[in-house]
Design brief:
The protein is mostly helical. The protein contains 7 helices and no strands.
């Protein structure tokens, strides 16, 4: 069963990667860069401080930063544990796929997918009752994650698993925020 799943993953990756065309290469290589999304991160911070009191916005931002550290740490250790080669580093693949980036670390699971989905889920949950349009933020992790296939560095299972880990992490940190961190919670009362 695992063999069939990995074969599906490989063939789906080859198919999706082959859909890339030179005309959109600049788009995908730009979208995959974290620095491109800095204005979005600033918007997240602005919305938190525009929506909540200084104390509550700060505690939400700290929760968000702790989430990022947690997801990056988890992603790093899982990648080391699985040690799955990225498609661009696989000698059986790298001659038949389009490669626009060449990272040398491991593939499983996607840190782009896990971190972007985690951040978006938490920001969405924090703001959904105050800003009805925040669901649009999910465009970011979808584009950010898909870019990893088009630049040739992640398989679909890497992306799917990363997204699921990110979603679950965002939900857990949202729960932890309301249980332990939110100003006025049992543990923060004077």
């Amino acid at each position: 069963m695992l063999e069939k799943l990995l074969e599906w993953d490989r063939s789906t990756f080859i198919y999706l990667n082959s859909l890339g065309v030179e005309t959109y290469d600049t788009f995908w290589t730009t979208v995959t860069e974290i620095s491109f999304w800095i204005p979005l991160f600033l918007l997240f911070g602005y919305l938190l401080y525009a929506t909540f009191s200084l104390r509550e916005a700060t505690s939400r931002l700290i929760t968000l930063l702790l989430l990022v550290v947690f997801v990056l740490f988890l992603t790093h250790w899982v990648k080391l544990g699985f040690s799955r080669l990225r498609p661009n580093n696989d000698a059986t693949l790298n001659t038949v796929i389009r490669i626009l980036k060449s990272p040398t670390d491991f593939s499983f699971f996607s840190g782009h997918a896990s971190s972007s989905f985690a951040i978006t889920v938490l920001v969405y949950l924090f703001l959904r009752q105050h800003r009805k349009w925040v669901g649009l933020f999910f465009i970011w992790p979808i584009l950010f994650s898909l870019s990893r296939i088009f630049v040739g560095v992640h398989y679909p299972i890497d992306i799917i698993t990363g997204a699921l880990v990110g979603i679950l992490s965002g939900l857990i940190f949202y729960s932890l925020y309301y249980r332990f961190i939110k100003p006025g919670s049992v543990l923060t009362r004077p």
